[in-house]
Every structure is written in C-alpha cells, then in structure tokens.
C-alpha cells in the first residue's frame, strides 16, 4: 500500500503492478483480501502473514519499544473472517505493550516489528503463534488461526543515553538492561 490510495505488487513472474483505488478504505479492503488470499493459498500456515494497510511515520519499532495500540481480533473461519473475539477500538483504553517482553502472543511480537506510529497492519496468525492447542476458554477455540487489525497510536522507543565519553549511545546497541517497568508497560519515569 502506497500513499494516495495506490497499491503495488509483483506477480509470480516478478512483473510489477500498481492499482489506484477510489478511496483509502477501498485500498485497505483490497489489501486485507490479498492477505486472506495468501493465507488460503498456502498449504501450511507456519508463520505470521501480514499486510500493511497504512505505513505510518517515523522509525520502525523493534524489540524493547513500548507501544499503545488499537486492535480488533477475529477468528479465521471458512477461509475468511469469522466472529470478532476481542477489540479495544471503541473503548477508552488502548492496549499498552512492550515488544520482546514475552507477555503477548508470539504472532504479535513478530507481526508488529517494523511498524511505525500511525501505521495499521493486518495480521493472520497460525495457532502455534497464537494460543495453540489450549485456546482461550469461551473466546478462542483450540488450534484457531487468528486475524488482527492493529494500529500503532503511540510509540516509546528504547531510550538513548550518553556514554562515558559523552557520545550519544542508543540503548539498543548497549548491553545495559532495559528500564524497570511498572504494571502498565511503560517505564516508571
């Protein structure tokens, strides 16, 4: 998906195609259907499929970064979207999480890497990368493939700090441990 309602892709002969849509919603809906088609055409879904719907701005997120996201999750049923099993889109609170913390499903850890603030992404997550054979009682049946639309509303990148020589050093490149987190997923400062 490109700005101004364009979508570009390569076919199986590596020929480049571009499509212009009448609206942003039409471009997003098409991109979602492409992701579902990829899922349906793979014999075994053994990794997360994702499709960017809006690219967002700024630096792509990495492990250790904290995010606030809006999301909706569907069960993947009958080769398409089934019922919604979870959403915070119409709620006051965004979901706060820290990538790489191990406190969210593996499919989100992988599928959200590289997203940017304001970005929206469509994720199709196989059972092994979601809730597996146990599922979630009353909400997600065992061995369910899940579909999520996630939007990054806020990003808190791993902090930069100064080295002993006064040079700026990103904590991503430093062996120093991450800041201690309070219960809401953001550092105490």
Automatic annotation (TrEMBL):
Domain (PPIase FKBP-type) spans 64-156
Its subcellular locations are: Cell projection, Axon; Cytoplasm; Early endosome
Transmembrane segment boundaries: none
Q: What class of enzyme is it?
A: isomerase
UniProt keyword terms in alphabetical order: Acetylation, Actin-binding, Cell projection, Coiled coil, Cytoplasm, Endocytosis, Endosome, Isomerase, Phosphoprotein, Rotamase, Transport
List the SUPFAM superfamilies hit by this protein, alphabetically: FKBP-like (SSF54534)
Q: Give a yes or no for keyword Iron in this entry.
A: no
Taxonomically, which superkingdom?
A: Eukaryota
State its Enzyme Commission number(s).
5.2.1.8
* GO CC terms: early endosome; growth cone
**GO biological processes:** endocytosis
Family matches, as PROSITE patterns: FKBP_PPIASE
Comp. bias intervals (Polar residues): 180-189
- Mitochondrion as UniProt keyword: no
Q: Which reaction does it catalyse?
A: [protein]-peptidylproline (omega=180) = [protein]-peptidylproline (omega=0)
Region entry Disordered, spans? 163-189
Q: Name one GO molecular function term.
A: actin binding
Q: How does it assemble?
A: Interacts with WIP and actin. Interacts with TBC1D23.
Regarding protein family, the annotation reads: Belongs to the FKBP-type PPIase family.
Protein name per its UniProtKB record: peptidylprolyl isomerase
Q: Give the gene symbol.
A: Fkbp15
